[in-house]
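QUALITY CONTROL LOG
STEP: pairwise intake check
CHECKER ROLE: data steward
CRITERIA: each record must contain a sequence immediately followed by its structure tokens, with no blank fields

ENTRY 1 OF 2
RESULT FIELD BELOW
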Amino acid sequence: MTDAVLPAGAADQAAVTAVVRNAGSSFYWAMRFLPRAQREAMYAVYAYCRLVDDIADEPGPLADKIAGLARWRAEIEALYQGRPHDPIARALASPIARYGLRKDDFLAVIDGLEMDAAGTMVAPSWPELERYCACVAGAVGLISVRIFGTGEAEGRALAKALGEAVQLTNVLRDVAEDAADGRLYLPREVLARHGLPLGPAAAVVSDPRVAAACIDVAAVARRRFAEAAALLAAIPRSAGRPARIMMEVYRRLLGRLERRGFARLDERVRLGRLEKLWIAVRHSWL
């Protein structure tokens, strides 16, 4: 990072806050009780992730999505050269300088979203799904643990375990919605185990055998949450507090999905705002 990077101004921070609040995400409550510098850093990271995710996820021609993500690649390069242009990129300048955040982790998020935008995420192999999780969730975890002050080795292990657990939970929550968009993140090895032939996402998801495949993926997510919990128990509580909040939110969501069952994939499951707030307060002070 060069010395020429300028700190975020009030307008840049306001742009970040608007993105975070409008998203209505669990992330807001997980980070709300951090010290100010860490909170603003994490909000800027989230705002970046939200903006690039929207590029990949919104309807439109593939060429437009690839071009939009390429513009953000260029923006990240400009940011690390001390010449950010976008308000969200400018808001990242100070956290990058303060916490030594790595360019490769920001670019890895774009790598994962390019997998989404290209439409190739239809019954990926387990290694492909793991790589996707590492890009869209694990990379954010690697950025986050530097901000939280977690040790390097412990932080990398935690980012991998919790990132995969969270992303697999998202996969299970959004199976029906993703299938409507032609996407299917359930790994092909699991589908094959239950006799599900590869084909269009909607056809696979409408097969009753998909419930058993979801149960298998949920079991992997459970194991990753257990790994993350063990890692969190071994690091200082203050450094692990935000990750603990995120883990609790998503572990509850996974439990709710399991109780609903996977035969009714179009029945949306979510945690309410007050429940997320209670989790954040509980794990911030206890």
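ENTRY 2 OF 2
RESULT FIELD BELOW
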Amino acid sequence: MNPLPSSSIDVRRIGSVSYLNARPLICGIEDRVRLDVPTLLARDLRAGKLDAALVPVAEYLEHPRYQIVPGIAIGSRGPVLSVYLASRKPTAEAGTVALDPASKTSNLLLKVVFAEFLGLSPRYVAGADRESCDAQLLIGDPALLARERLLREGYHLLDLGEVWQNKTGLPFVYAFWAVGEGLDGLPYIEFLTRAKERGLQQLEQIVASENILPTDVARTYLTRHIRYDLGAKEMKGLLEFQRLCVRHGLIARASELKLAA
């Protein structure tokens, strides 16, 4: 179960987010992979500076040149807790919505939720004007940290994973491993699958090592809300998300989902 690298893999050229939800996927290699925010990982995989990366789904939908590592993802089947819209007023009354610069996937999901499921068309804001908006998209560990405070302060929270599941009956996939063009995908499948298996066996140790979130929050999040599979239902959810992104003009066209083999 020790995820030792194949001789064909340079672990330093694998990139992952540093969020709590990714730690089970990089168990045993966390001190060697590059850690960064999703948008920068996607940029450097596209530029050939990384050989493989845990990328936002949006990166693949916009640039379908990669090989998707099968069987591994960061997803949810219901409330995800770490991707939500926080609004000072009821969601339907939010005229301006601040996007999160760190994750294109969550931004696309938010726009799909508003356009397809809520029938709303707020003005989306990116950049420095976040605090002046009626609502803000929060993702990742900062979202987990802020959640209870925002609820106490009377904010309305719209969990995007929960809305997606309720409206489609499908899981939502936020990120998956992608291998760069022209590389042999098999060593990465074997290597990253071993890391995932080891991480899922050591969830309690990962929870115990968390030093920012309360232990009970971290445990509940990793064991009840985050899913790490990329199977038939997840692929169906990906295709539905792609279809809705095309329908609402968020991406140019639909593309085949290419699994590494």
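INTAKE CHECK: passed for both entries
DESCRIPTIVE NOTE, ENTRY 2: Strands lie at 14-16, 34-35, 52-56, 67-76, 83-87, 96-98, 123-125, 135-139, 156-159, 172-179.
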